[in-house]
Amino acid sequence: MKNSDLLFNFFTIVLLSITNCQFQSAADVLDNNYLRIRNNLIEQDRNNFFGAAVQLSPNEEVVNQHLIKLKKSELDFFKSNSSFLPGKNFLLVKNYISQSKVFQFIQRIPKGASLHAHLLASVDPDYVINNLTYLPNVYGCWINSKFKLKIFPDPLQTYEDAKCSKWQRLSVYRNESNQKQMDFDVFLRNQITLNESAVVQDREVVWQKFKSIFECLYDLISYRPVFKQYVYRMLQELYDDHIFYTEIRGTFMPLYDSNNGTSEDPKIFLDTFLGVIEEFKATHPKFIGLKYIYNIYRGVQKETLRSILKQVVHYKKIYPNFIAGIDFVGQEDESQKLVTFHHELLEIMPKLKFYFHAGETNQYGGTDLNLFDAIMLNSSRIGHGFGLTKHRELMTIGKCRDIAVELCPISNQVLKLVDDPRNHPGVMLLSENYPVVIGNDDPAAWGATGVSYDWYVVFLSMTWPEHGLRVLKKLAENSIVYSAMNTEERDEALKIWERQWNDFIIDQLERVDKEHGEKQKINDGCAI
Ligand SMILES: *[C@@H]1O[C@H](CO)[C@@H](O)[C@H](O)[C@H]1NC(C)=O
Ligand SMILES: *[C@@H]1O[C@H](CO)[C@@H](O)[C@H](O)[C@H]1NC(C)=O
Ligand SMILES: *[C@@H]1O[C@H](CO)[C@@H](O)[C@H](O)[C@H]1NC(C)=O
Ligand SMILES: *[C@@H]1O[C@H](CO)[C@@H](O)[C@H](O)[C@H]1NC(C)=O
Ligand SMILES: *[C@@H]1O[C@H](CO)[C@@H](O)[C@H](O)[C@H]1NC(C)=O
Ligand SMILES: *[C@@H]1O[C@H](CO)[C@@H](O)[C@H](O)[C@H]1NC(C)=O
Ligand SMILES: [Zn+2]
């Protein structure tokens, strides 16, 4: 061993245990080794990162190098332009992101599963407007200064309602708008999505608007024939984004139809849902399934909670492979905390798995304390969970219990919790190699489809320039490993995913070769 190596090793060890003051003087002495030690420390840090330990085959390595080149050139572009795309509000830059080469690469990846999304905000608003609101029986009405949609049996009739003067067919609204030279569908779009105004509005205003989206759509989607179309389309959008399995959060919605009215029986809802999934699988054999996480409103009274839990346990027995468990929803900062329900939850713990939203907050020592309950109650995953980085001990427990965090960075940005994803606490989770998965939360509310936009934001903003395919492969693997699938389902899913992944790599290799060939031709052309 050379003298400098000895010195180097010694210094590395000392460096990790000494104070900054000593570091200064030690560095003076070791002037010659300074850069070497620095590089070593950086490398160590980079290699601790999420996914860094993933092994790549020689083929994967070729694709990896290609991806890193794309990534660096995109990062360089943003640097020279002082316009880091994912740092800008998604409502303003979605169409630019769609054009990114890195984004398009991510779209093609077999990403496995999408594990955090809400049923009523999971279908492209354009589809909802163009394909669902043009059905002849769709009516609209203002109720408590919110515009609501609903289906009535006879399009020739008008329907009175105690809460609004009358339900009017959308064709009538459309006609009225036309006469005023206005586009009713633009109005409609503003009811079911957040628009650019949200970029400059306060968080409270944005959240109010966000909540009203669900109210606008609820009755329309509860119409059984619409519900079937809606679910089918949701699966199609995920499938088109190379997702083959998903876990969706929602309630047992009372579905209605023209012949037999509204059915409060959850069995109707569950059978209808399952029917659509089977229908979709029959024509999309690569799609393997969906599980449902029953969500309960945070503002719930304890009495109601107890009866809901009883009901979910009952249906979990009848549909054991479909119902994954439960969650609480509603703005975390505004409502009751998990600790309020700890008796009820402890009691039900042996029968139901938990997938709690927790720590979707900027508070410290307030709402974020929900994370303590989520982990004490053995939540299987944590939705958002970014408050976790403020609680070191808890984060350690979460990591050793292998409780994955579901990151949804675009949701956090649009809903005004984390402005610039480069400063998202998820960076710290990733740098600690904490298990994470990525979800899209409520993509329809900001006009996203699939989960690739969130993957892109994480990949560009929350990883090093040198981190390429390993991170993405790990994210896909995690989406299966941390899903609610049972061991058998999971093993089967992993096998299917591996085949998809290998096909993807072959396909990418061909693309790289082709691009390389074309460049070669251009270069040859120039040489002449
Ligand atoms: C900066 O970005 C814009 C698009 O946002 C592009 O049109 C322009 O050419 C870029 N300028 C430079 C100097 O890269
Ligand atoms: C949705 O509507 C568009 C425009 O009317 C139409 O072209 C398309 O075929 C429809 N898609 C489905 C799945 O019904
Ligand atoms: C549109 O409204 C005008 C004026 O109220 C009416 O004459 C016309 O019949 C309406 N057209 C449709 C298609 O409802
Ligand atoms: C956004 O939607 C609201 C209605 O919710 C509307 O008043 C406003 O004009 C819209 N803003 C833009 C920029 O379209
Ligand atoms: C209700 O009516 C439809 C026909 O529109 C039928 O298919 C369905 O089985 C009926 N029953 C229930 C419980 O939905
Ligand atoms: C906690 O969750 C894990 C994984 O879901 C499970 O294996 C374990 O039995 C649970 N522990 C308790 C105390 O419920
Ligand atoms: Zn959510």
TrEMBL record:
Cofactors (names): Zn(2+)
Extent of the signal sequence: 1-21
Domain Adenosine deaminase: 194-492
EC number(s) recorded for this UniProt protein: 3.5.4.4
Species assigned in the record: Hypothenemus hampei
Family (UniProt): Belongs to the metallo-dependent hydrolases superfamily. Adenosine and AMP deaminases family. ADGF subfamily.
Enzyme class, UniProt record, top EC level: hydrolase
Cited InterPro entries: A_deaminase_dom (IPR001365), A_deaminase_N (IPR013659), ADGF (IPR006331), Ado/ade_deaminase (IPR006330), Metal_Hydrolase (IPR032466)
Keywords: Hydrolase, Metal-binding, Secreted, Signal
Source taxon at top rank: Eukaryota
Domain (Adenosine/AMP deaminase N-terminal) ranges: 16-106
Molecular function terms, GO-annotated: hydrolase activity; metal ion binding
Reactions catalysed: adenosine + H2O + H(+) = inosine + NH4(+)
UniProt name for this protein: Adenosine deaminase
Record localization: Secreted
Gene Ontology terms: cellular component: extracellular region
